[in-house]
User: Fold this.
Amino acid sequence: MPSILDRDTLNAFCRHTHVEAKGAATGPLAGLTCGIKDIYAIAGYKTGFGSPEWLETHPAATHTSSAVQRLLDAGASVVGKTQTDELTYSLAGENAHYGTPVNPNAPGRIPGGSSSGSAVATTGKLVDFALGSDTGGSVRAPASFCGVFGMRPSHGRVPLDGACPLAHDFDTGGWFTRDAALLETVGRVLMGSAVMGKPAPRVLLADDAFAMAGPEVTAALATGVKRVAKKLGKPQPVTVSAEGLREWFEVFKVLQGAQVWAEHGAWITQTKPALGPGVRERIQWASTLTPADVAPLKAKRAAIARRMADLLGDDAVLVLPTVSGIAPLLNSPPAAVDDFRTRAMSLLCIAGLAGLPQASLPLGTLEGCPVGLSLIGPRGADEMVLATVRRVMG
Assistant:
């Protein structure tokens, strides 16, 4: 039987860590195929983590990550490992060592990272769905850029044993599909959820998030917002952050960066990997952070989490743009990429700081390119978010 590598003209799959595994004969995902982001362990094989030096300096896995095993046990067959940004520390999808997966729905533009290969494999119909991960936005951003469904679960809902970490207080699993029903089914498998959720009875509209995304994105998502209103009821306008979403991103950026260096600093210092552009500068910056930089921001993060808990209660979803625009062009100047990253992360950091579930829905188009509309739910209410997505798309 031919390998997925023979059909992959999008550079979605890894040639350097290829692995296949057949799923169980029965189960909710029986007969479906999936790609696995190259951060998850599969017994007997190495994990690349987007880095040639990581691949060289780490042995083959002795056990399979629980998230992958749950998919296999539910009947899904793994057809290969998907490309990821180097050490997953990027939103672009441009890997200096392994190349950039092709965004099928926005030619000439980035696919988004760090779950670039998983998003592209799903978008390009190479697989039925794909497993990714999301720390800062690594499922939600590529879902928006490529025009597919993407789900970041509540922090801790999907097991991450055997997955290469970036920043453990923010790391989550995540997955991509081309339809809402499968998004929910995959989620129930990964979270081990026995119950079907019910759609949210209350809907909020994030005025400040739309203002940050700007009038063009707001206009591009207007039809999607109307769809949400028709299916769920008229949203209540709210301001998410009194102090400004950019300030929230600064909190996220420092807390994440400190954890990245704490997790990988010793390996980087010893191995001296040839890091690609963007990742290299972020790692260098992370290495300069001190406990004095981090300490006051922990209290700010706790306050942000309380704000989101008060806003959402246990029964609301928040509607907002997934990111601040369409996918940037390939090989954009670093300054332009940094500006876009700051604006995008100012929206993406909301769920990350509070550990909340967020789904990106492919409900907008701008300049012929996809742009996603997101639903954020209360922490632990993943089933409600997925049921709400199903209702909106039904």
Summary: The two ends are 36 Å apart (CA to CA). The chain has a mean pLDDT of 97. Residues 245-271 form the longest helix (27 residues). The first strand starts at residue 33 and ends at 37.
